[in-house]
Amino acid sequence: MKHYRSTLPPLDYLLFFETVARHKNFTRAAEELNVSQAAVSKRIKFLEGWLGIELITRRGRTVDLTKAGHKLAANASEALEYLALGIGQLRQGSHEKLSLASNIAVSQFWLTPRVNEYLLSQDAVPVSITASNKETDILNQDHDAIIYYGTDIPSGWEGEVLFEEVWQPLAAPSLLMQSPDISQSTLLDFDKLAMKWINWPDFIELSGSSDFAAAPRVNLGSYGSSLDAAIRGKGIALGCSNVLKYEIEAGRLAPLESAPLKTGRTYFIIWQSGTLPQRTRDLLRDVGIDS
Asked: How many other C-beta atoms are found inside a 10 Å radius of the C-beta of residue 192?
């Protein structure tokens, strides 16, 4: 059992000491604390008596810390900063934060750029993102909203359409300039972690396009790795232009106009039924997540 009252001096005495240690001057410490210099000196003497250790040495108007004083000043500063951070988070209120979730590709290429841009604004509140390719990981946790990919909004949830999925080949502009005949460029494939994912064999079959049927293909494991390799000009990846909007606008990827495939799936913003207050809706709009 912890007995802070018997093992710690009064908190304001530590606060006064930290201020004196930081300024190394009683006058400036008193000004910051908005008290008299005598009040500061009295608390420092009490703290030294309570500890039975000399913390400071006085040289006229200036103050030097003893070895013990340096150690206590560092610990007190860290403890007060941590306490101030915790209190500040409480004062922001339970709604002054936003918890989001999505699959890994949407998080990396669509959601995180929006959140980062929002966090640069003056009035931004903390935003957390959970990224997982397992739907159960994000649907079974407590989030304010989820970017969901599927044919419909799950039962027990409400939501709005963000955009329809159109799957198409993408490549770095540098690769397109070097290889006019893209039909022989390497196809950058990935492992399907869910039945609704579409990789290169699925795309070629569903689109009915023979443009890439004879092209060499390499499996890079994860979908993110295939996009990374495409950005570096190593081949052609698959993707949704809406998800990869930032990469396309930055000139790192360019969609190929041939054989776009409408998958019949949609990206939604969803939340558990009856759990979206107006404040959260406003925060989503500020982040740039709205239909």
From this structure: 13
Cα–Cα dist 43/16, whole Å: 7
Report the alpha-carbon distance of residue 100 to residue 244 in Å, rounded: 19
Residue 39's identity, in one-letter code, is: A
Whole-angstrom Cα distance, residue 289 to residue 268?
Answer: 10
Which residues on neighbouring strands pair with residue 167, listed in sequence order? 240, 261
Residue 266 CB neighbour total at 10 angstroms: 17
User: CA-CA-CA-CA torsion for 11, 13, 15, 17, nearest 10 degrees?
Assistant: -150
The 10s digit of each residue's pLDDT in 76-120 is 999 988 888 877 766 655 457 899 999 999 999 999 999 999 999
30, 240, 245 from 249: Cα distances, Å: 55, 14, 6
Angle between helix 11-23 and 67-92 (nearest 10):
120
Kindly tell me the sign of the dihedral angle through the C-alpha atoms of 238, 244, 248, 251.
negative
DSSP code of 115?
Answer: H
In this structure, what token pair is assigned to residue 273?
A: 């039924």
pTM equals 0.65
- Evaluate if residue 152 carries a pLDDT over 90: yes
pLDDT one-digit tens code per residue, 193-238: 888 889 999 999 998 878 888 889 999 999 999 999 999 999 999 9
Q: Which residue has tokens 């500040």?
A: 88
Find the length of the chain. Answer: 291
Residue 62 has pLDDT above 90, yes or no: no
